[in-house]
Amino acid sequence: MLRGLSTVSFYADDVAAAGKWYAELLGFEPYFVRPEQGPPAYVEFRIGDFQQELGIVDRRYAAHGKSDQAGGAVLYWHVDDVEATFDKLLSMGATVHEKPVERGPGFVTASVIDPFGNILGVMYNQHYLDVATAH
């Protein structure tokens, strides 16, 4: 059911500063920034052989707000049907972390807390499908 890494989301209070830090670490600038003008709320890098996504999101958009503890990353696994997978996870004892949300055309995310306390993200991601098809 889980087809591969789709997107890793990190949260930051200052997305511009975090984007610069990751650009320095990775050696290249993000390919996607929104909004295009003004302070960014989201920046995204494509990394590795399959060009997986590392997104840095304004912490205001985190499903459960700001935490004072380290962490906050949600790993999204690509699935073909977010709603069906989300329902199956709930039926297996997971609890809702974030209900399915359309993030834009071809991008839907959801996350659950598994019975062991881990956050599991699932995502329909057209970019993942395009890369997988090309390989």
Explain briefly what this protein structure is.
The chain is of the alpha+beta class. It has three helices and eight strands, in the order βαββββαβββα.
Count of individual beta strands: 8
Give Rg in angstroms: 15 Å
Task: Describe the main β-sheet briefly.
Answer: 8 strands, mixed
CATH level 3 topology: 2,3-Dihydroxybiphenyl 1,2-Dioxygenase, domain 1
Question: Keywords, please?
Answer:
135 residues; alpha+beta; 2,3-Dihydroxybiphenyl 1,2-Dioxygenase, domain 1; 8-stranded mixed β-sheet; 8 strands
Descriptive report:
The protein has 3 helices and 8 strands, in the order βαββββαβββα. A hairpin with a 4-residue loop joins β3 (42-47) and β4 (52-58). The protein is 23% helix and 39% strand. The protein has one domain (5-64, 71-134): 2,3-Dihydroxybiphenyl 1,2-Dioxygenase, domain 1 (Roll). It has an 8-stranded mixed sheet. It is α+β, with helices and mostly antiparallel strands and 135 residues long.
Write the layout of secondary structure elements.
Elements (H helix, E strand, L loop, with lengths): L4 E8 L2 H12 L5 E3 L7 E6 L4 E7 L15 E5 L3 H10 L3 E10 L2 E7 L5 E7 H9 L1
Parallel strand pairs: 1-4, 5-8
Antiparallel strand pairs: 1-5, 2-3, 3-4, 6-7, 7-8
